[in-house]
Amino acid sequence: MSRPLVDIRLEELATRGGRPPGLVGISVHVRYGEFFTFLGPPHSGKTDVLRAVAGFMAPSGGRVLIDGQDIVAVSPGARSIGYVFQEGALWQHMSVREHVAFGLEQQGMSVADVRRRVETVLGRLVLTDVGDRRPPDLTLEQRRRLAMARALAPEPRVLLLDEPLAHLDPLTRKSLRLELAKLHRDLAVTTIHVTRDAADALALSDRLAVLDEGRGAQLGEPADVYQHPRTRVVAEALGPANFLPVRVVEVRDLGVVVETEGGHRVPVAGIGEYREGGRGLLVLRPELLSLSDAAMGRGPGLPGTVSLRVFEGARHLYEVDIGAPTPVRVELPAQHEGRLFRLGERVRVELSSDTAVLVPQTASDGR
């Protein structure tokens, strides 16, 4: 990119008067050249972030600063922002080349420079062979590529992405996700991305923030938020997890010991303000667990019976009945050195005190 990098600051940003599905006092610093994601379910306020930064929505409170300038009073067209809408917002009567050229022509570029830039962008987004087609003649993947090409061609200071990979089939989504990561690596444009998909957020983001009903639930690097969620909402937003109601039975210098409803005790490392007798939810990621024969297990574990096994190509998915209201899900690689376990077999779910996480219970957990 020829433009200098910028940073974005959202300071106590509120929209729609702070009522759902608006934002409530969001403060985030998106760093220079960073790929930052807001992750959350529908109606969590994600799109309001993009609309406020782009100028399509006037905040009801707070400020939006780009490179230190408060842009709330700046018109959308003067903000130098590229916006990729979820459904593309493409013009049906214009060809691929015309879409990409549009923003460049608005900047007053010469015909020759527009032509060169268009071909460069089409090549980068793998659209050269369909340059004369119109949106109705493109695949969904090609329309998504075109939306990104149109947004990037004018070399914006900021790129806004509204679920650009939504509704793609899994293989296409994974492929385009990798290409988007490469694009950001090469262009380094400051990017705000919103999605409800944990895999997209984890794979693409330098940092991310989980939104819950318009409020920031947790912010940090993807691996840290994934491994150390502070609430059930955050844990669920980042992917599948087991949630076991537990009671704290011992407080140690480096953690606590909790007891499940079935009477099984598990050590948990690095805990904050929990006291003996306190209650919480034990969060166990399926892919961080393993299985062993019931009689062979060592260290922390949960004994139970295999109630389901599903082969998914790269992995085996097990459900283990440990006497709790819901079974514990365990995912093992298909090339796992251990053997397969049969339905009804007595096993032990092996876990680590470093991968088990304790989060507070809420009223919605039924206790």
Task: Describe the secondary-structure layout.
Elements: E1 8-14, E2 26-30, E3 35-39, H1 46-54, E4 61-66, E5 69-70, E6 81-84, H2 96-106, H3 111-124, H4 140-152, E7 158-162, H5 170-187, E8 190-195, H6 198-204, E9 207-212, E10 215-220, H7 222-227, H8 232-237, E11 242-252, E12 255-260, E13 265-269, E14 279-284, E15 290-293, E16 301-311, E17 315-321, E18 328-333, E19 346-350, E20 357-360
Parallel strand pairs: 3-8, 3-9, 6-7, 7-8
Antiparallel strand pairs: 1-2, 1-4, 4-5, 9-10, 11-12, 11-14, 12-13, 14-20, 15-19, 16-17, 16-19, 17-18
In spatial order, strands of the major sheet run 6-7-8-3-9-10
Overall 3D form: globular
Structural class: alpha+beta
- pLDDT average, as an integer? 92
Distance between the termini: 53 Å
SSE run: EEEHEEEHHHEHEHEEHHEEEEEEEEEE
Portion of residues in beta strands equals 25-35%
Rg: 24 Å
Question: How much helical structure, as a percent, in the residues?
Answer: 10-25%
Query: Biggest β-sheet, characterized?
Result: 6 strands, mixed
Number of helices: 8
Instruction: Tell me the total number of β-strands.
Output: 20
Give the low-confidence spans: none
